[in-house]
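FAQ: What does the model actually see?

It sees only this:
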Amino acid sequence: MAVPKRKTSKSRRDKRRANWKLVAPNLIVCPTCKEFKMQHKACKKCGTYKGFEIIKV
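And it is asked to produce this:
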């Protein structure tokens, strides 16, 4: 088995684990119904995307 040659310090270990965080989703306002929606997705309330009706609501 592979065995480390030197002990990994606490600061080096913690730097590696520092980037595991949650990020809030980018929400934008739907131009048709003014509700919040995810970017690049059809609006769940009115069913439009880029001014076209994609989903029948």
